[in-house]
Amino acid sequence: MLKDITLGQFFPGNTIVHRLDPRTKLILVIVFIAALFTAVDWFSYGLMFLVTAGCISLSKIKLKTLTKGLKPLIFIIVLTGVLNLFYTTGGKVLLDWWIFTVTTEGVKRAFLMVVRIMMLIMGTFLLTYTTSPIALTDGLEILLGPLKKLHVPVHEMSMMMSMALRFIPTLIEETDKIMSAQKARGADFETGKLTDRAKALLPLLVPLFVSSFRRADELAVAMESRCYHGGEGRTRMKQLHMKGRDWAALALGAVVLAATIVMNVYGL
Amino acid sequence: MNLQDMQPIIRVEDLHYTYPGDEIETLHGLDLEIAEGSFVAVLGHNGSGKSTLAKLMNAILLPTSGRVYVDGIDTADEDRLLDVRRTVGMVFQNPDNQIVANVVEDDVAFAPENLGVPSAEIRKRVDDALRTVGMYEYRLHAPHLLSGGQKQRVAIAGVLAMQPRCVVLDEPTAMLDPVGRREVVATVTRLCRERGMTVVLITHHMSECVGADRLVVMSEGRIAADGTPREVFSQVELLRSEGLSVPATTELIYELRRDGYELPLGALSVGECAAAIMAAVKGA
Amino acid sequence: MDTVIKVEGLSHVYSEGTPFEKTAIHDIDVEFYSGQLVAVIGHTGSGKSTFIQHLNGLLKPTSGRVYCEGEDIFATKEATRDVRFKVGLVFQYPEYQLFEETVYRDIAFGPKNMKLSEKEVDERVREAARFVGLSEDLFEKSPLELSGGQKRRIAIAGVIAMRPKVLILDEPTAGLDPAGCEGILKNITDYRHETGSTVLLVTHSMDDAARIADRLIVFHGGRIAMDGTPEEVFKRAQELTDMGLDVPQPAAIASELRRLGAKLPESIYTSAQLHEAVLALLRKGAAD
Predict the structure, then answer these.
(1) Subunits with at least 3 CB pairs below 8 A relative to chain B?
(2) Is B213 in contact with B203 (CB distance < 8 Å)?
(3) Mutate which of A10, A130, A185 to test chain C, going by most C C-beta atoms within 10 A?
(4) What residue spans define the domains of chain A?
(5) pLDDT single digits (tens) B47-72
């Protein structure tokens, strides 16, 4: 069901993870990804696992919700696992059949890679689940602020992003509705050859486009009538302030990254 | 307080409007004054020009000829555009297409943010506006999970946060269920009665006009009737010919009058209507 | 009376296993008979929309069964697909589903999916257009150019053209002005009289339900709270009010008159009935 897609959804809460400044969280996610990619072996992975598990438990987001977010990406995860399983050499040979060779090293690589990707996805999802999209785009706008001097339309970009995020659930709902309506007229979205299926999507896509344009139009009028006139002279209700906990979180992030780098050097 | 003595918050003078690319005029020379603090309902069937009129009151559309003044400001004066829009706030039909943020309170903050209001002041305005429409408990909710009536109340709060003197609502109840409709109408009625806010409610549900001070009926780009709801609803033939319905109370009394019974057409509420009939039964 | 649809122990739970889990309908048993015009009433979230989407197989029940003309509609994939043509469902704001380049082709979409011959499709398109009062002059126009009311008629015709045994309309008059509502309701009653089909009308308007339905089903909290003739249901005015539903205006006036001491018959819920009863009252008063 399309409704089950949780991408870009925000689960309000009041935990320390929720309360961190969005800029802190954005930076931490980048640090987290960097640390994940410097991790090489059991020790560094163990550390990253603890970090991920710690953040998840602090955020009070249900593990089930996070694993559901993994579902649409299961193909990529499995593919990574399989590729690593068969294309890694070294260690004891466990299985040798036709062109496939599975070694102990391959099993380990595959396992670690799958864990890495899963942690990567969960970490970034944790960011969007605990940060309101507005805070996120605000944070991004400020972090990218210096680019304004280079005439990069940072405000416009962040406004566009927050609008897109705002309308994802609405459009998903609408897609569901139109799909049901066309199915009620006997449309078939599930069976048939690929070309037939592409053609079968027209009854879904045409109404969706028409309604998106209508929405965009109405939204633009509604924004104008609420005095929107670009980023100039705009203030914010929620001003972002870096607090003690933000600096502490950043320091912790730096420590973790430093630790994984050190472990990387020693191959741990 | 006599509403007639006050200076009109909106003044429309010989207003003509033709949509770009259209050959036929949508509004044919309207004259209208909206008194500050009044609750005016505008009734009309689809295509009567009532929504066009609403958009002209907020400078979303500009007159083809004629003038619209908001608090004395000509809406065609580009330099005063923001002043016009912060004086007359606008709520639209589709609640989904006017909510800009993923969190209720962020949405309500949108207009004051655009106006450059200082942060602490925005916070105050947002909380105040949300309390006024009874949505304060929902301030951290995601708008798409709210009911239609709740979404429209958030949209009203979003306008209130600009601290306007008038709210124009363009068919805000057309997409709502009866519960949502009642919520919205009760909210705007309270705004007018308790806060002295001018309310212009555009609708095609006659039941929503009963509580208004004044009822304007639009037809084919002209004003077909203008008066208190009592006066306007008495014109049953006119309303029917406009494709509008009349309240069941008015309809009953109208039919009984045609049967030869002298009953007052102005008995609008269920209580008044029943009392008038009982009086006739006993008096006969 | 022949049973067209039979529902047994139907329950549906949305988003099972997520934070948004919600039981929409709970253990529903009901039967619909051939040729009935049933109004399905209930406020938003009462489960009525979820319920009707089970009747044509769009939603699969979490538990329970739905039979159409004696066949379990979820027994096989084919049965679930076929039932869509037997039970036509017009969604709320159906004008947003129009997609074809011409009005004609949009109405023909359903019949074409039924793999009917060109001739048969043509016959049905014309018939359906006639039922909803669409002129054939509009056939070659793009649906997007037409007015909101016309678009809605096209969408309804698109479902009628499948000649369903049961036609379900989810708030077909939502957002229309009084004249538009009146027109659509007249189309529906005419259609039902001419074809003898069963019609289920989901509506918020008690006045509409009172006027045109033979039977009323009231949903509340995912269950059927009332099921009976308009007379039977509107007698329970207080319960309806407690559920946050309206009572038809004429019924409200009648009950106020009774409170003031007037002797009126029990079954008043339309303007015509009220007018007649009050007229009798006035004449009697004059005679006393």
Answers:
(1) A, C
(2) no
(3) A185
(4) 2-145+240-266, 154-225
(5) 899 999 999 999 999 999 999 999 99
